[in-house]
């Protein structure tokens, strides 16, 4: 089968950073689906792994953790899917990635694809939807429902992949006042279009920008990027007993700064369930099915930002380069081999 992989960690400008190769087709395990990959999207985790994880013993490492495709075969213990089903999922970082024609994945972290979307639009959703959903409803414990409980959510990096779907979930499914951050006119409009009540520039002091919008403090923060750089401003912006959730990898984080206001810290990593095969792995299957229903009902929209064409090494290097520049809007998707 065709695949895109790397043999050593290299700058993305190097043609060998990602290469077109051929690999044997994988075999599904007892609870696995064998999926014919139709479309993929690219995430910051792809670039982080490529830069920092050297393949062992000169083997090829395949990246890619966002898929939309068709079930080709199922393992002997599979009960949730059958061949021919259209599916979407984010896979597991403990297994081979999905930048390949065929891919195997545990059925418990797979959802039925939204009926109203094509493969490219669906591939933009799984990783970010799971991250945003778990952050909002499981880590921050926000209640579903439109009742105004006087709560507010500041989303730092609201124009990115996770921010684009988190803004929609918070504005459509909760009573939160939603404030998104974006630094360019184009991305600020993108955030407004996804339902934010206010948009501020994270290149300016956040607490000052909030006050300029008439917002003294917020009860919740979702920090999706540069948390270590923004920490002092986030602590200032948060109300006493507020909650701070993050998904990025700060080099250092002085949590003592949270003490005076009794702020709580919540980390979201959507691969925890698949990495440790937790007893509640099936929650991600249920979550993705719920997101598909919300998409088909018109409540949520795909976060596809740019379509980079065919799934090959050249186009994936372009996608990695754009992500590493920090200028991406929404999700970058590739489709077909």
UniProtKB/TrEMBL annotation:
The keyword Transferase does not apply. The keyword Lyase does not apply. CDD domains: AL_MDR. Keywords: Cytoplasm, Metal-binding, NADP, Oxidoreductase, RNA-binding, Zinc. It holds the Pfam family ADH_N. GO terms for cellular component: cytoplasm. InterPro entries: ADH-like_N (IPR013154), ADH_Zn_typ-1 (IPR014182), ER (IPR020843), GroES-like_sf (IPR011032), NAD(P)-bd_dom_sf (IPR036291), Quin_OxRdtase/zeta-crystal_CS (IPR002364), Zinc-ADH_QOR/CCCR (IPR051603). It is found in: Cytoplasm. It comes from the Bacteria. Its main location: cytoplasm. One of its GO terms (molecular function) is zinc ion binding. Residues 16-334 form the Enoyl reductase (ER) domain. Belongs to the zinc-containing alcohol dehydrogenase family. Quinone oxidoreductase subfamily. Homotetramer. NCBIfam families: adh_fam_1. This is Zinc-type alcohol dehydrogenase-like protein. It comes from Pseudomonas japonica.
């Amino acid at each position: 089968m065709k695949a895109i992989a790397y043999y050593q960690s290299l700058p993305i400008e190097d043609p060998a950073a990602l290469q077109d190769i051929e690999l044997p087709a994988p075999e599904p395990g007892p609870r696995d689906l064998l999926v014919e990959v139709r479309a993929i999207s690219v995430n910051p985790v792809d670039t982080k792994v490529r830069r920092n994880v050297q393949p062992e013993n000169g083997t090829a490492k395949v990246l890619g953790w966002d898929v939309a495709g068709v079930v080709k075969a199922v393992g002997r213990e599979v009960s949730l899917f059958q061949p021919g089903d259209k599916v979407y999922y984010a896979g597991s970082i403990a297994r081979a990635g999905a930048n390949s024609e065929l891919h195997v994945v545990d059925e418990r972290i797979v959802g039925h694809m939204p009926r109203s979307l094509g493969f490219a639009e669906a591939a933009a959703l799984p990783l970010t939807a799971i991250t945003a959903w778990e952050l909002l409803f499981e880590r921050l414990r926000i209640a579903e429902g439109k009742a105004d409980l006087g709560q507010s959510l500041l989303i730092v990096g609201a124009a990115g992949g996770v921010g684009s779907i988190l803004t929609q979930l918070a504005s459509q499914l909760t009573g939160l006042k939603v404030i998104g951050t974006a630094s360019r006119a184009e991305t600020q409009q993108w955030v407004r279009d996804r339902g934010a009540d206010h948009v501020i520039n994270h290149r300016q002091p956040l607490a000052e920008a909030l006050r300029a919008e008439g917002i003294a403090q917020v009860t919740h923060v979702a920090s999706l990027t540069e948390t270590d750089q923004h920490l002092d401003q986030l602590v200032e912006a948060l109300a006493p007993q507020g909650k701070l959730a993050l998904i990025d990898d700060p080099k250092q984080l002085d949590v003592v700064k949270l003490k005076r206001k009794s702020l709580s810290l919540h980390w979201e990593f959507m691969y925890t369930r698949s990495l440790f095969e937790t007893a509640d792995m099936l929650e991600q299957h249920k979550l993705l099915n719920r997101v598909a229903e919300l998409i088909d009902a018109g409540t949520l929209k795909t976060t596809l930002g740019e379509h980079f064409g065919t799934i090959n090494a050249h186009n994936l290097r372009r996608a990695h380069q754009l992500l590493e520049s920090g200028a991406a809007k929404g999700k970058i998707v590739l489709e077909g081999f």
